[in-house]
Specification:
single chain; alpha/beta; Rossmann fold; 8-stranded mixed β-sheet; 6 helices; 8 strands
């Protein structure tokens, strides 16, 4: 599938953001939401992971020893058991979702305790620039930009993630402020002190 001119460059910039997080989980299970036609992110990190799953409405179903892709339209649920993945990546996908809150809640569910979500999403400042690049210069995909349902700033993306029970660790703008990069953790539930046994009463024997 032929890409628009700037797409490979933008993808490489996003990948550089993801690699340091993936390296924190050697031999991890990774879910890439919106993996694309050729699952390029999964293939790039294949030496670092034990298992990679990619989902996308345009991805053909495929399987190799480490990687599988599934054709899936993101609605409100993910077809995976709870606490399955160490890392979930969602790069340039959130802006396309009709139900972002439900999908991020599902990401929280399928992450293992101690796992991380890594996402990128265009900022509010990107909207006029992306539309100019797509509709006038034709160097990014027109179809992709027309499908954008919302743009996010720091406050809105952090609020969304926090509402789904994830703790924001890192937020930065990149690409001259036109993209959000966020890492959020699913914390391990704290173990409380052992329950005290009730004391036996010291009544006198009859």
């Amino acid at each position: 599938m032929k890409e628009a001119l700037l797409e490979p460059l933008l993808r490489r910039m996003r990948l550089r953001r993801v690699l340091p997080v993936v390296r924190r989980y050697p031999g991890c299970a990774l879910l890439d939401i919106g993996c694309g036609w050729e699952a390029r992110l999964l293939r790039a990190v294949e030496p670092l992971i034990a298992r990679g799953v990619g989902v996308d409405f345009k991805a053909p179903r495929a399987r190799s020893p480490k990687i599988e892709t599934r054709q899936l339209t993101l609605a409100r649920e993910l077809p995976f058991a709870s606490s399955t993945f160490d890392v979930v990546t969602m790069l340039a996908v959130l802006e396309h979702l009709a139900h972002p809150l439900e999908i991020v809640r599902e990401i929280s569910r399928v992450l293992k305790p101690g796992g991380r979500l890594v996402l990128t999403v265009p900022s509010n400042a990107a909207k006029p620039v992306l539309e100019f690049l797509a509709f006038r210069l034709k160097v990014v995909s027109e179809a992709e930009i027309r499908d954008h349902k919302r743009y996010y700033n720091r406050a809105s993306v952090q609020s969304l993630v926090a509402e789904c029970g994830l703790r924001v660790e890192t937020h930065r703008y990149f690409q001259f402020g036109m993209n959000n990069f966020l890492v959020a953790a699913k914390d391990i539930a704290p173990v409380g002190p052992p329950a005290r046994r009730p004391r036996a009463s010291r009544g006198t024997a009859p």
